[in-house]
Amino acid sequence: MSQLLALEHIRPPRFRLRDDIGDLTELKASMTERGLIIPITVRTTGEEKWEVVAGHRRYVAAKELGWETIPCDIRDLTDPQAYVLALVENLQRKALTPLEQAQAFKAYIRDYKHGDLVQLAKATGLSPSHINHLLSLLGLPESIFYAVKTGELSAAKGVELARLEKGSVEQSELADIVGKATRLDSKDLGKIVTAVKKGYPITQAVKTVVDFPEWRPETEKEPYEAKPFARRQILAVIEQALSRLDVELPTLEEGSIEYREWIERVRYPLHEIVGAVRELRKKYG
Fold first, then answer.
1. Residue 65 sits in a domain of what CATH number?
2. Residue 43: which residues within 8 A CB-CB, separation 6 or more?
3. Which domain covers residue 230, as residue numbers?
């Protein structure tokens, strides 16, 4: 059951999760017309004194509207409990950007020492791996961090770039390539990063993923070897060409007899080459 409390006796939240509370125009218009539908959550700090736990924007909007009182749910919360409640509310409302989430996770674990990663995962319902991925964004170099913050790079791509050594040439070059290449999504970037960590040259890794989107790099623990890779790629190119021939052949017009016969002649040597390459792979990998 909520109750009305005097705004002058309520202080802003100790734990701020958002860099900016944003524009309050629409919220204030809604509160003016309909009142406050969802009470803010506060905790007691002393005799007839309270602190905002969840609902900071509504609290600020009410003050700007000149309200004297505001509906509140009063909770008896410790610092860790208050932090988690505010965090969960913001996560459920999707009010935090990925970087704000990462900063909130870092504050919980490292700054305020409210608990470890496992406790945070249990409290928020998020997986430890998801939390770790977002935390990795905080380790990005300033230029890439800023690109994620401004939306030039997605958070998912930032997470993939964070797998590379901070400040490395590879990380910088890939960030530049991915920022300009609209065709590459975060999954593509993940393949490229895995290949680069294995030792693939950046240009080779990018070209392979672009030309062969279904390609799956081997695990990062297996080193990159140029000759086996070249054999695999040659085979993939030839198989791709054969597949294209099979698709195109039935679509040729009736008048294209010579072209059709030429394709039929070309297919057989190609099949022989594919067979030879497969034998090489069996022998040399």
1. 3.90.1530.10
2. 50, 51, 53, 74, 75, 76, 77, 82
3. 226-284
